[in-house]
Amino acid sequence: MPKITYIEHSGKEHVVDAPVGQTVMEAAVKHAVPGIDADCGGACACATCHVYVDEAWADKTGEAGSMEQSMLDFANDVEPTSRLSCQIKISEALDGLVVRLPKSQH
After folding, report:
1. Greatest C-alpha distance within the chain
2. Helix, strand or coil for residue 30?
3. Within its chain, how far is the Cα of 88 from the centroid?
């Protein structure tokens, strides 16, 4: 099972086992990772699951689609590696993925 590392803005790390097929957001919610609010439940209708994908993983997670890009307009402190974690599907290729959380989702 792939391991995903979530790093809070404070630097605290949470390493979770995430089933293939789940999203990075779903794994965070299931493991009560603080900082992933997921207000819309993964429908790509808000930006409260915003993460910064570690640059080493940016190619493996792909690029944000147009709908995701539109929602990122509502996120705080967007950076080039910003993604909505509800749009990143976990695969074996993402074993070891590192994402950082913004200071705030609102």
Report:
1. 33
2. helix
3. 7
| Rounded-to-integer distance, Cα 1 and Cα 90, Å | 10
Instruction: Tell me the DSSP string of 55-106.
Output: GGGHHHH----HHHHHHHTTSSS--TTEEEGGG-B--GGGTT-EEE--S---
DSSP secondary structure code for residue 1 in this structure: -
pLDDT tens, position by position, 24-39: 999 999 999 999 999 9
How many Å apart are CA 83 and CA 51, to the nearest integer? Answer: 6
* Spatial contact of 5 and 15, defined as CB atoms under 8 Å apart: yes
Tell me how far apart the alpha carbons of residues 3 and 15 are, in angstroms, rounded to a whole number: 6
Q: Which residues, listed in sequence order, are joined to residue 52 by a DSSP beta bridge?
A: 82, 100
User: Per DSSP, what are the bridge partners of residue 50?
Assistant: 84
CA distance 68 to 32: 23
Whether the model clears a pTM of 0.85, i.e. scores above it, the answer is yes
Could you tell me if 26 and 42 are in contact, meaning their C-beta atoms sit under 8 angstroms apart?
yes
